[in-house]
Amino acid sequence: MSRSFQERPAGASPAVIGSPRLSPVSAELNDGSVSDSELLAPVAPTVNLREAWDYSFHDDVDPTVAFFYKPRTVILLIGLLIGLVYLALFVVTGDDYVFNIKIGLGMALCVMIVTGMLQFRDGPFIRPHPAFWRVVLSLSVAYEMILVFTLFQNKDNMRRLMSFIDPSLGVPLPERSYAEACDITVENIWNQMDIFVVAHTLGWFAKAIVLRDYWFCWILSVMFEIMEYSLQHQLPNFAECWWDHWILDLLLTNWVGTIIGMKTCEYFAMKHYSWRGISEIPSYRGKFKRTVQQFTPHSWTQFEWGTTKTFKSFVAVLSLLYLVLQCELNAFYLKYLLWLPPSHPVNLLRLILYFFMALPAVREAYQFLSDRRCKRLGMHAWMATANIMTELLISIKFGKGEFPDPAPPAVVYFWVGFVVLLTIYAIYQFLIPALRDRGRGRGRGKAGSKPSSPMKQVSPLTRAGQRSKGKAKGQ
Predict the structure, then answer these.
(1) 192 with 244: CB under 8 angstroms?
(2) What is the pLDDT of residues 54-82, one digit of tens each?
(3) Which of 60, 84, 221, 392 could form a disulfide with 254 if both were Cys (CB 3.0 to 4.6 A apart)?
(4) How far apart are CA 431 and CA 438, in angstroms?
(5) d(CA 100, CA 410)
């Protein structure tokens, strides 16, 4: 992890609020991103009403590979301009507008990636290189721009546009139902063994790496099977045999992937992290091992979501659960509405992009939830949420007229009961104890307060007059 929340060391003198302090960036370390006026000007004092805390993105750079950590803004700018000149003047010279559009969109994406890699903030991950995660963030922004463009089209135009990108697209898909032969026989079970079995296992391995919690993955797996039951009247491939839902999917592929993923998380959590420089390692085997370790986490944080501890955690975990489920459902609905075959590279690229987006996004969401000093949701989490919800809007817009069959009454009754039970649980777990504690606090306050004495308030002048009268009587 690159974001380290550093407390002030014990014994260190706290900074005086209101006193200016000089910028910590020296002239020798200035990489050009800080102007001379900013370098020499005092830093404005900040007052944190919660706690004084700082966060920084840092990694001990190995001098052997220090070249890759120095800013190369001018070199990248020159390389980008050379690429634009070459493609615009020597490659795109014909009248093939489809080819020209593809090259233009590809170069626009390259410009977006290079700009984001140079200008975006670092996220919570720094391995294999902070620039890699800035590229991931740039791709999520570019994907959001594509989704927004898609949102303002109609489904027929988008289907035709997809055929320009790939001539094999733009053809209605045959939807397969998995609930035709539900007798438990070797032949029926073998017929269900397709590429999706491997995809299920790999998918749940990735989800375990992202979420890092057995119970969260287990609840998510059960809820997705329930979603398949609830939406099979819209998507025929959601119709499966009962043993396919609960045995083949839930207990075998999903659970196996989750266990392998969680064991991987446990390995990274217990691993001793020692980042010696490559030049400091004498053997070639050690140098190779250290090079491979560059593609592993710098450190590891175990997630403890604490769903039942506070109402904020309860709502946050439910929101995250909904977003993950919605991301899964969007893949099926977009495939159905845009006529994308399951094996098409666009589907695979989307899944890979979401995996790399989710890794830092969930880490930022966890920090925002668990650390009360963290006031801002990270950019990765913000963009991932925007991507998922924009996909939902596209599915709603393009789905008009595609699903004429209403939801079965059993499905409606189930979800109404589910929402009612969640509401009752939240009231019982959070609202009633809060009201009880508030009432006890008021009772203790009343019992601890003494009744005020009904003494007559006497002004100082009156007391002085009474003292003078007493002295006169005594005299």
Answers:
(1) yes
(2) 444 455 555 555 555 677 788 889 999 99
(3) 221
(4) 11
(5) 52
Both structure tokens of 231:
């939406």
Please report the sign of the dihedral spanned by the C-alpha atoms of residue 164, residue 167, residue 171, residue 175: negative
Residue 82: what residue type? I
Task: Please give the structure tokens belonging to residue 65.
Answer: 């590979």
- CA–CA separation, 405 and 81 (whole Å): 54
Q: Helix 379-398 vs helix 130-151: angle between axes, to the nearest 10 degrees?
A: 20
Retrieve residue 222's tokens. Answer: 């059960």
- SS3 of 23, please? coil
Cα(389)–Cα(421) distance, integer angstroms: 26
Q: Which two tokens stand for residue 41?
A: 């000007």
Q: Output b/e per residue, 366-401; b: 16+ Cβ within 10 A.
A: bbbbeeeebeeebbbbbbbbbbbebbbebbeebeee
106-112: long-range contacts, CB 8 A cutoff, minimum separation 24: 107/83, 109/142, 110/80, 110/83, 111/80, 112/138, 112/141, 112/142
* Token output for 26: 């020296």
Q: Compute the C-alpha angle 173/177/179, nearest 5°.
A: 180
Looking at residues 357-361, what average pLDDT do you find?
92
How many angstroms separate the CA atoms of 205 and 207, rounded?
A: 6
| Helix intervals (H) in 294-375 | 311-337, 345-370
Q: Are 2 and 125 in contact (CB under 8 A)?
A: yes
Q: In the predicted model, what is the mean pLDDT of residues 102-128? A: 86
